[in-house]
Design goal:
Pfam families: NIPSNAP. It comes from Bradyrhizobium archetypum. Residues 3-105 form the NIPSNAP domain. By secondary structure, this protein is an alpha+beta fold. The chain has one domain (2-44, 51-99): Alpha-Beta Plaits (2-Layer Sandwich). 38% of the residues lie in helices and 31% in strands. The protein is built from 3 helices and 4 strands; from the N terminus they run βαββααβ. It has helices at residues 15-33, 61-72, 75-84, and strands at 2-10, 36-42, 51-58, 91-99. The protein has a 4-stranded antiparallel beta sheet with strand order 2-3-1-4. β2 and β3 (51-58) form a beta hairpin. α1 (15-33) runs antiparallel to α3 (75-84). The longest helix has 19 residues, at 15-33.
Length: 108
């Protein structure tokens, strides 16, 4: 298994718009494309309270490539993302890391 950790740093005050987009659009499209989320988190204590961190579980890099590409090119995603940004840009930057479990990890 591969875990992808993605951290979205929002522009000031735009975290609620990002969370709404995930809740009402993104997760439905992930279901459509077979993308398995493994948890979403906001920052309680840290450098920024304008971040959303989440994890996606992948079986392989090939699965990630196929499903993520299909999701990113889905016309419903393209239109929905544009609509969600009618009031302005939401995300300042995104950091993505692909992680593999260690032999002693509780999650494998």
């Amino acid at each position: 298994m591969i875990m992808e950790m993605r951290v979205y740093r929002c522009l000031p005050g735009r975290l609620p718009a990002l969370m709404k987009r995930f809740d009402t659009l993104t997760l439905k499209l992930w279901d459509k494309h077979g993308i398995k989320q493994a948890g979403f988190y906001t920052t309680l204590i840290g450098t920024s309270n304008q971040e959303l961190t989440y994890f996606i579980a992948w079986d392989s890099l090939a699965e990630r490539e196929k499903k993520w590409t299909a999701f990113q090119s889905d016309p419903d995603w393209i239109a929905g993302r544009a609509k969600s940004e009618e009031d302005g840009q939401i995300i300042d930057n995104i950091v993505s890391q692909l992680l593999v479990p260690t032999p002693f990890s509780a999650v494998k």
